[in-house]
Amino acid sequence: MSSRRKSPLPSPRRCNADLLKADLEARFKAKLNVQVHIDPALIGGVRIAVGDEVIDASVRGKLANMAAALKN
Question: What average pLDDT does range 21-49 have in this prediction?
Fold first, then answer.
């Protein structure tokens, strides 16, 4: 199974990426081939896509959710 990880900056420590991969493999019960993409538009945090599931823990995502809540 393949996963894509986007972050605004390169990971400062390799062990963070290894821990994240181990957590994702446990959650999805599958071996993952992790691809890392740098996306400065995320501002901070991380956005992970595994198959059709997306985990958006980015600052951009949180700001978008807050903007949508304020409009309602």
Answer: 90
Q: What is the pTM of this model?
A: 0.72
Core vs surface per residue 18-54: b (16+ CB within 10 A) or e: eebbeebbeeeeeebebeeeeeeebeeebbbbbeeee
State how beta strands 2-7 and 33-38 pair.
parallel
What's the CA gap between 24 and 65, in Å, rounded?
24
Q: Give the C-alpha separation, 26 to 18, whole Å.
A: 12
- For residue 71, the tally of other CB atoms under 10 A from its CB is 6
